C-alpha cells in the first residue's frame, strides 16, 4: 500500500463529525497544560525567592500563554484527528517535531545552514512529541469515557480527578523552570550592587555606567527585576531592571561564581 492509498484509508476511517469530539477534548487539554505550565513558570521565581525584587513580566507571560496554548491545542487536535492510536501518536509526534523545527528557525541567530540545523535540533525530540500525542489522546478518550460510560455518582468525582492530573502535567515542568543556584547568585549580586551604590561609590566600577550613564541618576530609586534564561547565550540570564520612573536597564548576566564587573548592558 503506497503513501497516498494509506492516506485515503485514514481519511475514510471516520467522518469529521465522528472525530470532532475527540479532537476538541484533546485540544482543550493541550491548552490547559500550556496554561498551567506558563503560569507556574512565570510565578515560581517570584514567590520562591522573596529576598530578590523579582517581578512577573505580564506582557511576555500573556504572549507566551497565547502562543503555547494555540500550539498545544493544535497539537492535541492533530493527535486526536486520527482514528487509530498508533497513527495519532506518530502523526502527532511528526507535527510536534515540525513545529519545533519552525520555532528553532524563528529564534535562531545563525544564518548559515539555518534550516538544516533547526531540523537536526528538532529530530531528537520526535519521541517526546509521540509521548505528548499519546498523552493528549489518552486524556481526551478518558474524558469521553467518564462522561459517557460512568454513572452520575462517579462522573463528577472522576472528572475532577482527571482534570487535576492533567493540570499537574503542566505544573511539574513549569516548577522545574525555577532558577538554579548560579542564576539566583548572579541576580542576587546585581541586586546587592544596586543596593550598595547610593552609599558606596567603590562599587560603581562594577556597574555598567559607561554603557548606561543614566543608571547613576537612579541609584537609591525603587526597582524590580525581570529575569529569564537567555536564548542567545548559554549559561547566562537576560535581565531587565525597571525603575520606578520607567527607566530600564537591560543586561546579559553570566551565571558565574563571582560577577566582578557587569558590562554587557544597555539602557
Short description:
With 267 residues, this protein is α+β, with helices and mostly antiparallel strands. The chain has helices spanning 3-12, 16-48, 58-81, 85-107, 114-122, 126-149, 152-176, 181-196, and strands at residues 223-229, 236-243, 248-254, 265-266.
Architecture overview:
The protein is an alpha+beta fold. The protein contains 8 helices and 4 strands; from the N terminus they run ααααααααββββ. It has helices at 3-12, 16-48, 58-81, 85-107, 114-122, 126-149, 152-176, 181-196; strands at 223-229, 236-243, 248-254, 265-266. It has a 4-stranded antiparallel sheet with strand order 1-2-3-4. A hairpin with a 4-residue loop joins strand 2 (236-243) and strand 3. Helix 2 (16-48) packs antiparallel against helix 3, helix 2 packs across helix 7 (152-176) and helix 4 crosses helix 6. The longest helix is centred in the first third of the chain and has 33 residues, at 16-48. The termini are far apart. 26% of the residues are buried. The model is unreliable at 109-113 (pLDDT under 50).
